[in-house]
Every structure is written in structure tokens, then in C-alpha cells.
Amino acid sequence: MRTIDWDEDRAAVRLIDQTRLPAEYEVVYCERVDELIAAIKELKVRGAPALGVAGALGVVLACKSASKGEIERAVMKLKEARPTAVNLFYGIDRAYRAAKRGKTPEEMEELALAEANRLIEEDIAVNRKIGDYGSVLLEDGDVVLTHCNAGRLACVEWGTALGVIRAAILQGKHIEVIACETRPLNQGSRLTTWELMQDKIPVTLITDSMSAVVMRGGMVNKVIVGADRVVKEGVINKIGTYMHAVLAKEHGIPFYVAAPTSSFDLEHGYEDIEIEERSPEELVYCGDTQIAPADVRVYNPAFDFTPFELIEALITEKGVFHTPIKLI
Ligand code: MRU
Per residue in 153-188, pLDDT tens? Predict the structure, then answer.
């Protein structure tokens, strides 16, 4: 099943609830835009490309409102769901631009849905191309470290960083993966291991703080991660990415970023971008168990910035761009 899609029969957004994995596989339906906004905030749907599709489908739900003014307000609320991944805004803008060509809310909904469906098909095709271009960088026997989840659960299907690995395996190469757990929300341990094991791709789980040891010990020969936003001077991605990039440089291990060009925002530098800060509870609790004093001061940014100097190449649907990366 696709990670996120439009359900014709229910006129709703259908998505895999990623907060329940790996313990439970549950599909949820959002019939109203406020339900989808809540799902985005709670990370039921997450990962930059999937957020792009969620944004576009959210506009379809917003068009169920009675007037153009209400639709506009709903679209604005949708834009506030999460600040960092540029794809959310890309998807919203595309669908809303298409919708605005309609005269009535019904026409607007139809036009937004057609555009959202185009975006869904594009996402699938783009991911396949990223995989094909990136797969030439992987050799038979490689062990690839990855962070967070840049797999099919972060896209409609296939994945960006994990799509590269899937494509290399399809070519007959033996590739193994080391998945970093990705504290505090554990997208690596909950989602990356789950989807790789579903495909019978060999994966070993480590804590984030073990990456130096596995790199120094020669247990990894490449790193591939995704991106939430590619800016002028580098890449914004899940917190912890920068640490792995610094370590990879120190140990002479190529560090790659796989991302669609819809994640590019080259007009901005990283200091212009709002890095989402999430709730202190994510660090104070592990499930229902309290693991820190309730009133401890917490710093919990969800993303960090990695400069191009630390990145060997960017893998996109338009090809592989090696360093020195000159995007502007
Ligand atoms: O907070 P999340 O889970 O939405 O963060 C996701 C990531 O950081 C991914 O690495 C990124 O979106 C690339 S997904 C292809």
C-alpha cells in the first residue's frame, strides 16, 4: 500500500499511521482538513516528500469548505502544520494554484485533486530516478549507514535514500544497512528497520551515538540520508545528520544526500529557515515511562544543518551532483 493516497470511495486522504509502527499497522482516513493537519503535527504522516503530497491533498480537503474565504483560511492553517520541510509548502502551493483556477468550491476541489494526483505520480517516478542515478555509487558488498527514515514511508512509495539502496539491490548487488535509531522519535528504529525487513534487506540497528564506533571500526563504507530542505549552503535534515556527516569526513567515508529537487529552496540560506522545535515531553518520557525530571529544561530541535563541504554528492532525479556542489 502507498504511504499516502486519495481514497475515491470515501473522498478522504488515506495514510499509514506511522506513530503505530512497528507494533501495529493501521490505516487512517482524514475526511476533513483539520484531521489531516493533526495527523501531520502528530507525525502520523512524515518525511519531506510524503508531506508534499499531504499538503496537496490537504488543499483538496480545504476545498470542501463553503466559501473561497474559508478555503484560504484552511490553506493557511495547513501551512502552519510543520515549518521545516519545504515540500509541504511546495505541495500546498501547487494544488492551491491549480484550485484557484476554479470558480466554485466544487470546481476548486476537482482541480486541486487532479494536481495532487499528478504530484503523487511524480513522486513515485522521481524516487525511481533518484534510485537509478544513486545506485551507481553503491558497490557490491557495501554497508550503508542511514539516519531517520528516508524510505518508502517518507514518500508515496520506494523512498529516496532507501530507494538508492533498493535500486542497487535490484541490480544484483549485496548491500547491507546500518540504521541509526534517530532519537527522540526513533524513525530509524521504528520505521527504517521495519520497511527494510519487510523487503528482506539486511539491516542492523544501532543507537545514534554508536555511529563513530562503527565508522572507526570499518563496519560502514557509505552514508546516505534524505533531506527536508536543500538550501544555498547545504542540507537541512533530521537532527543527528550533521553529527554523522562530521564523523564520515573524519573517517574518509563518502556521505551522500538523496533528495528530489522539490526539496530544494536555493533562494534561502539555513539561517532563514525555521527549525522545528518539538515538545520537551519527547525527551522527558519514553512511552509512558518518565526518563528525566519532569521540569528539566529541554532543547529539542527536530532538524540540523550540514554544509556542502561535508557532502560528497547530492543524488537527485536530475542526476548526481558531486562536490564542490555549486547550486547557485
Ligand atoms: O520529522 P520527520 O520524521 O518528518 O523527519 C524526516 C526526515 O528528516 C527525513 O530524513 C527527510 O524528510 C527526508 S525523507 C525522504
Answer: 999 999 999 999 999 999 999 999 999 999 999 999
34 included as an active-site residue: no
Same domain, 199 and 279: yes
Phi, psi of 316 (to 5 degrees): -125, 175
Ranges of residues in the chain with a pLDDT under 70 are 324, 326-328
Comparing C-alpha atoms, which of 323, 128, 313, 125 is closest to residue 227? 313
Which of these three, 67, 101, 127, is where a domain ends? 127
Q: What is the position in ligand 1's atom list of the atom closest to the CA of 159?
A: 15
Radius of gyration of the chain (CA): 19
Q: Is 62 in the pocket of ligand 1 (CB under 6 A)?
A: no
Structural domain including 224 reads 137-322
Cα 317 to Cα 328: distance, rounded to the nearest angstrom: 18
pLDDT of res. 65 = 81
Nearest Cα residue to atom 6 of ligand 1: 47
Q: What CA–CA distance (Å, rounded) separates 62 from 39?
A: 15
What is the atom index within ligand 1 of the atom nearest the CA of 226? 13
CB 235 within 8 A of CB 227: yes
pTM assigned to the model: 0.97
Which pLDDT score, from 0 to 100, does residue 216 have? 98
Residue 39, classed as helix, strand or coil, is helix
Within this chain, do residues 157 and 236 fall inside the same structural domain, yes or no? Answer: yes
Asked if 155 and 227 touch (Cβ cutoff 8 Å), the reply is: no
Q: How many domains does the chain have?
A: 2
* Of 109, 127, 145, the domain-final residue: 127
Q: Say what the pLDDT of residue 327 is.
A: 60
Q: Is the CB of 150 under 6 A from ligand 1?
A: yes
Task: Kindly state whether residues 83 and 212 are assigned to the same domain.
Answer: no
Q: Which of 41, 89, 149 to mutate to test the pocket of ligand 1 (most atoms within 8 A of CB)?
A: 149
pLDDT at residue number 323: 75
> Considering the domain boundaries, does residue 328 fall inside one?
no
